[in-house]
Amino acid sequence: MHRTQVTNEAEKMHLKILMQNQIFMDLLLIRRFSRNLFRRHRGRNLYDRMLNEFYRSNLGSNQIRGMR
After folding, report:
1. Number of compact structural domains in the chain
2. Which residue of 22, 28, 41, 65 is most buried, as measured by CB atoms within 10 A?
């Protein structure tokens, strides 16, 4: 396995744990209302990737769609 593949698998596992965490949910909601905070590295950093992954999951789309 490539090193990047291993990293991606680790990140996915990490995401699953984070998504079950209420604090992470709150952070995501805060992120929605303070977009400028991380804009400089948009799409590049782990935080944004986690956010995208979260919205792609059913959990994200079901719970947050009404708040967009």
Report:
1. 1
2. 28
